[in-house]
Design brief:
The chain has 677 residues and is mostly beta strands. The protein has 4 helices and 34 strands.
């Protein structure tokens, strides 16, 4: 069976093929990394964030639950990372990030993920520190498909299937999956409820005790998730293609132990229509039209906690994103010119309500958290590629005009405009050595949460209104320099890249203030990434990558003195060794190592964390009849460790100084059976 090995730091000209089984692989070209075969190998859950953390050194995991976790890219998270699914912008509805954009796709439906580091993507609105472009599977003309069953520790069960086929004129694909899992146990043997009990027992605030899981819910499952995806590709003529797709995600009862609420459900619907015209003459080599809409509905509540309480609170949020993009490609004088217009509108709305446990009283509104806010953007962009012998040059520019309008009668509307630009160059010294450099500027506007989010203290009467948002925020601008070198050898390659990011008006959470917690500060982040791949024999493949970064505040948040920037994860190493013992079987041993997390922003709830080293093992066997079996164990040594400093900006469990940290899963065993046809 054929597999293309994508060496971690090779450009496309350095890739080669060999006989082996398919596995996750990473191809790098300058500041871009493409993660392949996530759908084939990430068997244990639908959690894309976890898969990226295990395979991309520059990405770290923000652990919130057993599923639907988030990522940090080069020390930045949330809106600083632009995430798309097949070009559609999907925004989470939860102000506490229970439903990040990466949670609205499941791994078995993914074809590949392109990670663009730095401010070098002018085709997207708000790509500040980088972008994550998720591409799902495409329908094929030949009838093909697969059915997969998976079981693992902590009661994990998953079933998924995909079927595709068609003709020269029309191809269709349908994919579906369902999965559920119990609360996982950490290396100490504690599940979510027990980790929470251990934390609240150690705090000085008796109020936090009320947020333990009630006896009736202490052993409930951690999540259930179902996904459906349908696609139709139509080619009416040789130079036209219409792509239609719909994806539905339905998640229920997702537990978030470090928050004071759990998600009752998290539903998303993604509609996407793309139309492409090719070879239109001298003025258009290819023209693309895209129209999309994504909706997320997310209520979270306290009813699984609050033992003995007669009332519980629900925070119900929804968001709706509609976008249109028109892009034209044309070849002019040996230049590849791309230009277009990109416009979008996002609505975000949220409200707190209170009701009785027995349903004896009507639902009572407490107040708006986000008052029906519209963020409207219009952007125009242009980029140009030019080959000058041994030098490749790409330049790009984008202008954005954005308005943020709220229905609140007490908060102000805002408007922003920004010019983004970049230049990327690569110099091919010879067939095996390439140097590259990039200089870029990009901006992103504050979102409705950062501007207007409001919470309520109902423990006092009359209720206390707390405005966490800051309506006067400026947009953040990133000025960044990237440098790197790639070297290919007969049996491997190596790449080194560095970056320096200067952040002006960086939107930063100040946990010391009673309200208006978001502030603009100036900051900088710099770092280096080193990766290498080596294939000493036709059956043995070695791969390793490490990332280091440092961040500091150039100006201080109000009332604070700590100069360390939050969310700067420590030195991290990803390494693996894969061995094909015959043409249809392989084994792999992988390790993830992180240094101790000692450089912290203690003013904003970060804590010193111990380093860790985790071993993961798996073996795969393919049979001639189309069956593929995979068995593995993660965290082989059953270590107790934490990857995430859980920050106050997510309004988590806190005793006033430290936030509750969630341990990663302990030893996890799994078995997968897949049939392909």
């Amino acid at each position: 069976m054929k597999k293309t090995i994508y060496l971690s730091l090779a450009c496309s000209a350095m890739l080669f093929a060999t006989e082996t089984l398919e596995e996750i692989s990473v191809a790098e070209k300058g500041t871009t990394q493409v993660v392949k075969n996530i759908g084939g190998e990430e068997l244990k859950s639908a959690d894309l964030a976890d898969a990226l953390h295990k395979n991309v050194p520059s990405i770290s995991l923000i652990r919130r639950s057993g599923i639907a976790n988030d990522v940090i890219l080069r020390g930045q998270k949330r809106d600083n990372i632009h995430v798309t699914i097949d070009g559609t912008k999907v925004c989470g509805a939860c102000v506490n990030r229970m439903d990040p954009p990466t949670s609205h796709v499941v791994t078995h439906s993914i074809d590949d993920v392109e990670v663009q580091e730095g401010p070098f993507d002018v085709t997207e609105f708000g790509a500040l520190s980088g972008s994550v472009k998720i591409k799902t599977k495409k329908p094929t003309k030949e009838v093909s498909g697969e059915v997969s069953l998976n079981a693992g520790s902590f009661g994990y069960q998953k079933a998924s299937g995909t079927i595709s086929g068609g003709t020269d004129k029309m191809r269709v694909l349908f994919s579906a999956s369902t999965e559920k899992g119990e609360q996982y146990k950490d290396g100490n043997g504690d599940n979510f409820a027990e980790q929470l009990q251990n934390y609240t027992a150690s705090t000085t605030s008796p109020m936090d005790d009320t947020f333990n899981y009630s006896p009736n819910h202490a052993n409930m499952d951690a999540f259930e998730k179902t996904m459906y995806m349908g696609k139709v590709f139509i080619n009416p003529t040789d130079n036209q293609e219409l792509r239609l797709s719909y994806t539905a995600n339905r998640s229920d009862n997702i537990l978030y132990p470090s928050s004071k609420m759990d998600a009752l459900w998290d539903d998303s619907d993604i509609f996407n229509a793309e139309y492409t015209l090719s070879n239109l003459g001298n003025f258009s080599k290819k023209m693309d039209f895209q129209l999309y809409n994504s909706k997320v509905d997310h209520p979270m509540g306290t009813q699984y906690r609050m033992a003995g309480q007669s009332k519980y609170m629900i925070h119900h949020l929804s968001t709706d994103m509609t976008g249109l993009k028109v892009k034209n490609n044309v070849d002019i004088l040996d230049n590849t010119l791309t230009y277009g217009i990109d416009t979008s509108k996002r609505n975000w709305d949220g409200e707190y309500t209170m009701t009785t446990v027995d349903g004896s009283a009507p639902v009572m509104s407490i107040g708006k958290s986000i008052a029906d806010v519209d963020t409207k953007n219009v952007g125009v962009f242009v980029k140009n590629k030019k080959n000058l012998g041994k030098v490749d040059v790409e330049v790009g520019a984008r202008y954005d005009d954005t308005s943020v309008d709220t229905q609140s009668l007490t908060e102000q509307d805002n408007s922003y405009n920004a010019l983004s630009a970049n230049i990327l160059t690569s110099y091919h010294l010879n067939e095996t050595t390439k140097y590259f450099a990039g200089l870029g500027k990009s901006s992103r506007v504050p979102d409705a949460r950062e501007l207007y989010n409001t919470s309520y203290n109902t423990k006092v009467m009359p209720k206390q209104t707390i405005v966490n948002g800051t309506p006067t925020l400026n947009q953040t601008t990133n000025y960044e320099l990237d440098l790197g070198v790639e070297k290919a050898y007969d049996k491997g390659n190596v790449q080194l890249k560095t970056f320096y990011s200067k952040l002006k008006d960086y939107i930063y959470y100040n946990g010391s203030l009673p309200q208006n917690n978001f502030e603009n500060i100036d900051a900088h982040i710099y770092g280096a990434e080193l990766s290498s791949s080596y294939m000493p024999t036709d059956s043995l493949y070695l791969n390793a990558g490490l990332a280091y970064k440092k961040g500091a505040k150039d100006t201080q948040p109000t009332g604070q003195t700590n100069t360390n920037l939050a969310e700067i994860t420590p030195f991290k190493l990803n390494a693996s060794a894969s061995y094909d013992y015959d043409a249809q079987g392989s084994v792999e041993l992988a390790v993830i190592v992180a240094n101790s997390w000692n450089t912290i922003d203690s003013d904003n709830g970060e804590q010193r964390l111990a380093g860790y080293g985790i071993f993961n093992f798996k073996t795969t066997r393919e049979l001639d009849n189309g069956l593929i079996f995979t068995a593995g164990v993660d965290n082989l040594l059953n270590k107790t460790y934490t990857t995430t400093n859980t920050y106050k900006d997510l309004v988590l469990m806190t005793d006033g100084t430290d936030t509750m940290l969630i341990n990663e899963p302990g030893r996890y065993l799994y078995l997968n059976a897949k049939y392909q046809f």
